[in-house]
């Protein structure tokens, strides 16, 4: 006999994410093995002000806090933004103070606390979040623009064109065969470098 019960914290929130499930099943996403190259590219410095778009449960955001010296009076600041209540709750429990729930596609939702230093951030960083922003990828780029100071950098990682194409194709085929609209269940935005470059250039990057 097997008795198993799903933990209440494993139940996804209204955004579809559960921090505890994410930490159990996908910690590789924020592991050093996967994130060293992008952190190197970001090249954060002590005293810098950085926003982490789609910060999740805050593991990388906390790493960045250490680098900029956010808790050592260097003037450095890292702000985490995520549209999952569960993720932000866990990020706070993990020790991330500056973080809040908002949709990065909608900069108008950002709280006033961020509005003050708008156009004043050295960098916007993001890891494994932009491919979830299928509804309005350009909205994300516009949000980045509202935050960066002149010369600021936008450094991020997202799944690219044809990512997981085998699994996604199979999903489409099976759903179509059963009479469902398969386009609504593929939630990802996986652009080619050319496509994403075009969007960036059109928004002034
Ligand atoms: C795979 S997790 C990555 C989390 C974190 N960046 C990391 O490296 O561990 C993707 C995150 O993006 C967030 N996300 C997806 N769409 C978002 C949106 N429109 N606005 C803000 N956050 C979003 C999810 O809630 C989730 O926490």
UniProtKB/TrEMBL annotation:
The segment(s) forming the Methyltransferase domain are 45-155
Name the CDD domains for this protein: AdoMet_MTases
UniProt-listed SUPFAM superfamilies: S-adenosyl-L-methionine-dependent methyltransferases
The protein's matches in InterPro entries, at most eight in alphabetical order, are given as:
Methyltranfer_dom, SAM-dependent_MTases_sf
Judging by the UniProt lineage, the source's domain of life is Eukaryota
Protein's name according to its UniProt entry: Methyltransferase domain-containing protein
Organism, by scientific name, is Marasmius oreades
